Amino acid sequence: MEQESEIAAVKIQEQVPLAEHSNYRIGGPARYFCEATNEEEIRGAVQFAREQQAPLFVLGGGTNLLISDSGFAGLMLKIEVMDLLQDETEQTVTVGAGVSVADLLQFTIAHALSGLEWAGGLPGTVGGAIRGNAGAFGGEIKDRVARVESFDVQSLETITRDNAECKFGYRSSIFKEKNGREIILSAKIRLEKGDGPKIAAAIQEKIHYRRERHPMEYPNIGSTFKNVDLKLVPQIWRNAVAKVVKVDPFPVVPTAFLISEAGLRGMQHGNAMVSPKHPNFIVNLGGATAADVKFLIRKVKDAVFEKYGIRLEEEIQMV
């Protein structure tokens, strides 16, 4: 069912299956659903949610999101702001929040712009990457963000922040801390002139690495848990984990190692499984439910705490 909001020219759908909008292929329906391509449509959707007294959730690429089996009882707002423009005088790119990281990387190859090679194979949208300060292979999106424009759902105003004002941290930012109060619209990304073929090769190398080591053959939403800051590892275990410590961007212990050492590779509940290939991934074997995944999350957290005294923190988002 589809209706037109009287507040603004924005299409609102009803009872939309959310599994179709998640990499996990898990999740019940949204009471209301809207795809917004610009700020005006976002404003209209926000006003519609207010009018209906419905909770609002902002959806990006659905690559880091576990959606409840019962769905979402409010308005699921999918951001489809797709601007992608180069300012050649500044060697910056203005990119809409709905642009996929993969498409942005293809743009950098076509225009011989260097600085994001580390993101090869990174799933999701640019908006989601900024919100969670995505990082891999020693790089983080914060290192390239010059400016971010966002929409405040309470004041209905646009806010522009420079890099420092975004308060980036490990897999976090001011936008994540505000927990839905602000919707990222676009960002200006700083890059350098490079060699297109070399940029393409570096990106492809990262994509190949991910395909070889991550369980891409099953629906998944990436790493379930954040890696563990080495400072949080009890002293008794420091020597035992020393061989696997990596810089990401500070010394961390890969959570996949802790899960593996706790003997949880391949653990299955229903149709969800702790991946034997990369145990920080919980994969959907086909027909898994959110309840199956949450059961394994609890089991993993309990087992790692019992063995190491470390409390794992989810990197994925749940709704």
Shape: globular
Could you give the distance between the termini?
Answer: 23 Å
Q: Taking strands numbered 1, 2, ... along the chain, how are they ordered across the largest sheet?
A: 1-2-3-6-4
Query: What is the multimeric organization of the chains shown?
Result: single chain
Total tally of structural domains: 3
- Amount of helix: 25-40%
Along the chain, the helix and strand elements come as EEEHEEEEEHEHEEEEHEEHEHEEHEEEHE
- Low-confidence spans: none
Find the count of extended strands (DSSP E, 2+ residues): 22
| DSSP summary: helix tally | 8
Structural class: alpha+beta
CATH topology of the largest domain: Uridine Diphospho-n-acetylenolpyruvylglucosamine Reductase, domain 3
Radius of gyration: 20 Å
* Percent of residues in β-strands: 25-35%
CATH architecture of the largest domain: 2-Layer Sandwich
Largest sheet: 5 strands, mixed
- What's the CATH class of the largest domain, please? Alpha Beta
Mean pLDDT: 94
